[in-house]
Specification:
By secondary structure, this protein is mainly α. The chain is built from 16 helices and no strands.
């Protein structure tokens, strides 16, 4: 059976066929994967739920203005992003499990403080702590998954995390419908329950962490200690992080620009964007695992090239959106929501797993921080860039996103031959 014909690994294939004749390494025993998965699902649900809920909480429970709340949350988030490189260095010293434990405890403390904020600087501080906790999680998440799985199995865990985060966002968005009936006490209870969920996730991570013997064995078996110079000298890895921006920009474009297209360009009915996002969420939640099982038969490079092609097709359909009747434009928007959700279901877990596999030895934390920075770059700079393109015309925006998605195809194909460990070629 060739590499491209391999089926997606099932649970009893962890970590390799050798596991059937000798005990699995301690870090890869099934009970640890199960506990870790439960912890990250709790984490993803809590984080996802709060994303659409944060502004509602500050405005309706704490009495802040909408503009000042948004500015304070953004300022706090930027503080967390700036700390990414430092957190990567810390992870290489203390390990992924310790980082994940800290990420949950930090966010538990922050959410417990949300009901206590009474001034804008308080919001900035609490939002910064939450953002730092998120950076701690994302820096350590993929390296931790790599230590618990082998081969393509890591993609499934990453996919389940994505589904949980989408489900949490859906719960948060749906909960906004209850806003008129919610009291301040109810708002505060949600914040406290979210804090408690992170405490529970921390307990599960504590049970998953390596034992002292395992830490000693790992340190003696892998004496290599990397640095930021190690990561930055690895040109294929740095280039891979750069290519990631092309994919993440496509993801940001879908979320940030579709509502503007509906309201400001098409002047269409308000239900269109909500319906499009609901359809995309259903596709992601229901289709993530079947999609990953299907693309698990392919190499990662083939999967990522396919995702880039789907993104390009979805954006190309919107180029004439301002020139066709509103009914036709609505159909194009709904189609884009479906196609882009499929593309995101493919590229996100494959790219994250590939980045973890290609990270320079001894500098996995720093490498993960650089990879996460490529995601953050699109999230921070994307809206400003994309709105500038839209101001030049609807066709300009979607044509640009089409071209950037197409450019990702040869870039990924070229990198598949240069990255170590066959990170993309397997």
């Amino acid at each position: 059976m060739s590499e491209t014909e391999r089926t997606f690994p099932s649970d009893d294939e962890f970590p390799t066929d050798l596991a059937r004749t000798r005990p699995a390494p301690p870090g890869r025993r099934p009970h640890r994967r199960g506990l870790f998965l439960a912890a990250t699902i709790i984490d993803a649900l809590g984080s996802g739920l709060w994303m659409p809920f944060a502004l509602l909480f500050l405005v309706h429970a704490q009495g802040f203005g909408l503009v000042e709340s948004g500015a304070a949350l953004s300022g706090g988030a930027l503080v967390g992003l700036a700390g990414g490189p430092v957190l990567g260095s810390i992870m290489d010293r203390v390990g992924a499990a310790t980082m994940l434990l800290a990420s949950n405890m930090v966010r538990a403390l922050a959410f417990a403080c949300y009901p206590l904020v009474t001034a804008v600087p308080h919001i900035v501080v609490v939002a910064a702590v939450v953002s730092i906790g998120d950076r701690l999680f994302w820096t350590a998440n993929a390296p931790m998954i790599t230590s618990l799985t082998e081969g393509r199995a890591s993609e499934r865990l990453l996919g389940i995390q994505t589904v949980a985060r989408f489900a949490g966002s859906g719960l948060g968005a749906g909960g906004s419908a209850l806003l008129p009936t919610m009291t301040i006490t109810a708002f505060h209870l949600i914040a406290y329950l979210n804090a408690a969920s992170f405490v529970l996730a921390a307990v599960l991570i504590w049970l998953v962490r390596p034992t002292r013997r395992e830490r000693v064995q790992a340190s003696s078996a892998a004496p290599v200690r990397g640095s930021w110079a190690t990561v930055l000298r690895d040109r294929p890895y740095v280039a891979f992080c750069g290519v990631t921006v092309l994919f993440t920009l496509a993801s940001v474009g879908k979320y940030s620009m579709l509502p503007i297209l509906v309201t400001d360009v098409l002047h269409g009915p308000q239900w269109v964007f909500g319906t499009a996002m609901a359809i995309g969420t259903v596709v992601m939640v229901a289709g993530q695992q079947p999609i990953l099982r299907f693309v698990g038969r392919w190499t990662r490079v083939r999967g990522m090239v396919t995702a880039a092609g789907i993104f390009a097709c979805s954006f190309a359909t919107l180029i004439p959106a301002s020139l066709v009747p509103v009914g036709a434009a609505v159909i194009l928007i709904l189609g884009t929501a479906v196609l882009s959700a499929i593309a995101e279901a493919i590229f996100a877990p494959l790219m994250t797993a590939a980045a973890a596999a290609a990270a320079p030895q001894g500098a996995e934390g720093r490498a993960s921080a650089l990879f996460q920075l490529s995601w953050a770059a699109s999230q921070v700079a994307g809206p400003a860039l994309l709105t500038s393109l839209l101001s030049a015309g609807n066709a300009v925006l979607w044509l640009t996103l089409t071209v950037t998605s197409v450019c990702a195809i040869p870039a990924v194909a070229l990198l598949s031959r240069r990255l170590p460990h066959g990170a993309l070629a397997r």
